[in-house]
Amino acid sequence: MESIVDLFIGNIIHCDQPFTVTVIQKGFVAVQRNKIIAVGHSSELQNRFTSENVRKTLLSDSQILIPGLIDTHIHACQYPNIGVGMNKPLLQWLKDHTYPLEKKFKDAQFSKRCYDAVVKKTLSYGTTTAAYFGSIYTDSTLILADSAIRLGQRALVGKVNLTKNGPADYIETSEESLRETRRFINEMSKKNSELVKPIITPRFAVSVTKEDLKALGEMAKEFNLPIQAHMNETIDGIKQLESRPGDVHKNFTHTHEILTEKSLFAHCVHMTKEEIQKLADSGSAIAHCPDSNFNLLSGICDVRAFIEAGVKVGLGTDVSAGCSLSIMNAMRYAITASTALSFSKKGYKPLNYFDAFYLATLGGAKALSMDDKIGNFEVGKEFDALIVDLDVQNGPVDIFGEHTALELFQKFIFTGDDRNVTAVYVAGNKVK
Ligand code: GUN
Ligand code: FE
Question: 24 near 12, Cβ under 8 Å?
């Protein structure tokens, strides 16, 4: 028997092209198993999908169907600290709050409790895909992967490499770090998950040696894996590298093994034109984390400069330097940060809500090299989607009458939260 076709009928909104938001009023998306098999206007539905194997979901006038949101940078193990230690610069914040917390993830039970909570909560906010940093502990990071697999989230999960400049009781030797990364990759492959995969995760240039980086770049190549790290987040971090000539010096753009078309660098607040060009030339991406960049006083990343240079850009919450698990919040901060830049740059065109939505969906998919699978409602892609309802009881705002689909979309971006996300689908499975 043919498998069931799920028809979602109502206001459909997605980016069918980069930076282009398409609104299909009275539209439909047809899904079979995990994949999108047709998209269009509901008038085209006559004579199609007439068999009994059709299940219809009719959206109300206050609902929109959008692609799942993509968090390209989040530290799952920092969730217990969310909202704590803000307004301290990065290196101080790491020492006072973050490393002491991450150390606790040696404990498997604590890991499971925290990781289940992060995955549940991010799914509830509509994050269908996340690129996670775990801790330096392999077994604990495997528990994070298990949480994502069990709860149905799509994820890249990284065991962190930290061999330099960490506290004495939260650090690895280079040999241990590489061996454990290999073990992590091996254990992940045994899980055989379609949705959850490993990612090589050197924390930042301050925390690894040049040799570690080369070896990790080679390991990424050997297993065809993506790479994630922080880059040029703060002036202090860059200075720390410059004061250690002969080491990683400056940043990852000087270590070509780590610059690949599947590399993703968080922050990139303080970059020269040449460094941006290197990212563009290598096909690497950045994770823009504007909330975090304000909280740790890091600066404002000029995202437009990366976009114009042809660098792929996604959005990250960067919990817990970012103080929200919601990519809706990241969209708002991206708009605010860009608008703030425009006040001092003549002729600068700030990002608008269409741009922010692109970065949160198709842009994020490209940044994670997953745009062959997710990011919009293209036929053949997997169905990662949210039903968003702007008129829910006890929602964040009240609704006074009818709105167009585009107005509902704007309200979602500027006022939405998890209460508005009434259903979440990952690869066709309803996970909220
Ligand atoms: N740089 C190195 N580690 C971290 C981290 O955990 N968070 C942020 N925001 N930056 C970092
Ligand atoms: Fe981070």
Answer: yes
Q: Within 6 Å (CB) of ligand 1, which residues are found? A: 75, 90, 94, 98, 203-204, 230, 233, 292, 318, 321
pTM over 0.95: yes
Cα of 295 from ligand 2 centre, angstroms: 12
- 183 burial level (CB within 10 Å; 0-12, 13-18, 19+): middle
Same domain, 92 and 109: yes
Distances in Å between the alpha carbon of 429 and those of 21, 40, 240, 400?
25, 21, 46, 33
ipTM of this complex: 0.99
Domain enclosing residue 422, as ranges: 5-67+375-430
Please give the number of the atom of ligand 1 that sits closest to the Cα of 296.
9
Q: Which DSSP symbol is given to 174?
A: H
User: Do residues 103 and 166 both lie within one domain?
Assistant: yes
Instruction: Please give the distance, rounded to the nearest whole angstrom, from the Cα atom of residue 264 to the centre of ligand 2.
Output: 12
Buried b (16+ CB within 10 A) or exposed e, 389-419: bbbbeebeeeeeeebebeebbbbbbeebbbe
What span, in angstroms and rounded, lies between the C-alpha atoms of 408 and 76?
Answer: 31
269 CA distance to ligand 1 centroid (A)?
A: 13
Say which CATH number the domain at 383 has.
2.30.40.10
**Same-domain check for residues 165 and 301:** yes
Indicate if 379 and 348 belong to the same structural domain.
no
Residue 365 token pair: 């998919």
The answer to whether 296 and 322 are in contact (CB under 8 A) is: no
Probe target for ligand 1 pocket from 160, 203, 268, with the most ligand atoms within 8 Å of CB = 203
pLDDT tens digits, residue range 89-142?
999 999 999 999 999 999 999 999 999 999 999 999 999 999 999 999 999 999
- For residue 174, give both structure tokens: 């280079």
* CA quadruple 206, 96, 132, 108: dihedral sign: positive
Cα–Cα distances in Å, from 143 out to 109, 177, 186, 202, 228?
9, 18, 14, 19, 19
Q: Is the Cα torsion angle 65, 61, 6, 152 positive or negative in sign?
A: positive
- Cβ neighbours, 10 Å, residue 57: 17
